[in-house]
Write a structure and sequence with these properties.
single chain, about 110 residues, alpha+beta, 3-stranded mixed beta sheet, 4 helices, about 50% helix, elongated
Length: about 110
């Protein structure tokens, strides 16, 4: 008899069912949690267009995207990419929301001081 078998024996069938139910619930929450940060948003132009026209991407971000996200300070064109400045507390959420809709090669993320 090993530790795992002893644990299962002590739980009995009802305990095993409860543990299994908790595990399945955890998996469902982990794989379905989170909400879309920009519900209903779709970029008006293709990523190829934005790659050729970075000022248009900056304008789209500042006019239609960044106002809908908390913690953003703005965007500017720098070094062949659009640099988005985000405060430290919202950095991960904003980065994830933008990368859901825009190509990573076009964006550079900076933390605000």
């Amino acid at each position: 008899m090993n530790t795992g078998f002893d644990f299962i024996k002590k739980l009995r069938p009802l305990g095993c069912a409860i543990v299994l139910l908790c595990f399945v619930s955890l998996l469902v929450v982990c794989f379905s949690s989170g909400r879309e940060a920009l519900p209903g948003y779709a970029p008006p132009e293709s990523m190829d267009y934005y790659a050729r026209n970075l000022p248009a991407l900056r304008a789209e971000l500042e006019e239609n995207v960044l106002p809908r996200l908390e913690g953003t300070a703005g965007a500017e064109v720098a070094d062949g990419r659009v640099a988005v400045t985000v405060d430290r507390a919202h950095f991960t959420a904003v980065r994830s929301a933008l990368l859901d809709h825009f190509d990573q090669t076009l964006l550079d993320f900076r933390q605000a001081d």
